[in-house]
Design brief:
Layout: E1 26-29, H1 46-60, E2 85-88, E3 91-94, E4 99-103, E5 108-113, H2 116-123, H3 129-137, H4 141-177
Parallel strand pairs: 1-5
Antiparallel strand pairs: 2-3, 4-5
Helix pairs in contact: 1-2
Length: 179
C-alpha cells in the first residue's frame, strides 16, 4: 500500500471527485502505514481500544472510493497477502479496498484506508489524537454516510451529464436523418 505520513495532505484516491472545484474540505492522511516506515503505537486499555474499533467499524460500513482489488497488511507476516475481513454487529466488512472519511473540526476531513481497523486491532497503531476525537465524537448515520452520499451524487451527476452530452451530440444527426 502507499505510505503517507499522518496529517499530511491527502493525495491517494481512485476517484478525483474529492479534488473537484467547490469541495469545501481539507483532506488529511491518517493510517497509511507501510513496514518500511515507523509508526506510533499505543498500549491501549481494552475498553478504549474497543470503543475506537467500534467507531472505525461504523465508518467502514460506509467506506468510499471502493476498488476492485485489495491491499493487504505488510506489517505482519501472518496476514500478508490475505484479504482481511471483520465481523461485528452481524455484518462482515472487507478491509483494504476503500477509505473512510471522518469529519473533524474547521472543515478538516481525515482520510484513512479501511485497513486502519486492522492496524489498530493487531499492531496497536496509535492515530493522532485529533483523528481519535473526530472518529469517536459523531456516531450518527448521517455523518458516517455523508461522504458516501457525496461520492454517489457526484457519480450520478457525471453519468447524467454524459448522457445529456451524448443526446445533444446525436440531436443534429437525428434532425438530418429525419428521426
Amino acid at each position: 500500500m502507499t505510505y503517507y505520513e499522518d496529517l499530511t495532505f491527502f493525495q491517494y484516491t481512485q476517484s478525483d471527485w474529492v479534488f473537484e472545484n467547490g469541495f469545501p474540505y481539507f483532506l488529511l492522511n491518517i493510517g497509511w502505514l507501510d513496514n518500511s516506515h515507523p509508526y506510533s503505537q499505543e498500549n491501549y486499555d481494552n475498553i478504549e481500544k474497543e470503543v475506537l474499533l467500534l467507531c472505525i467499524f461504523n465508518y467502514c460500513m460506509y467506506r468510499v472510493n471502493l476498488t476492485s482489488g485489495h491491499h493487504t497488511c505488510n506489517l505482519c507476516q501472518k496476514e500478508y497477502g490475505r484479504i482481511l475481513n471483520v465481523h461485528r454487529k452481524g455484518k462482515d466488512i472487507t478491509l483494504g479496498n476503500g477509505e473512510i472519511f471522518v469529519k473533524g473540526r474547521n472543515n478538516i476531513v481525515y482520510v484513512a484506508p479501511t485497513l486502519i481497523y486492522h492496524y489498530i486491532e493487531t499492531h496497536n497503531y496509535k492515530p493522532p489524537r485529533e483523528f481519535v476525537d473526530a472518529v469517536t465524537a459523531d456516531t450518527t448515520k448521517e455523518n458516517f454516510s455523508f461522504f458516501k452520499d457525496m461520492e454517489t451524487q457526484v457519480q450520478y451527476n457525471r453519468e447524467t451529464a454524459q448522457k445529456q452530452k451524448e443526446n445533444i451530440d446525436l440531436n443534429p444527426l437525428r434532425f438530418l436523418l429525419g428521426d
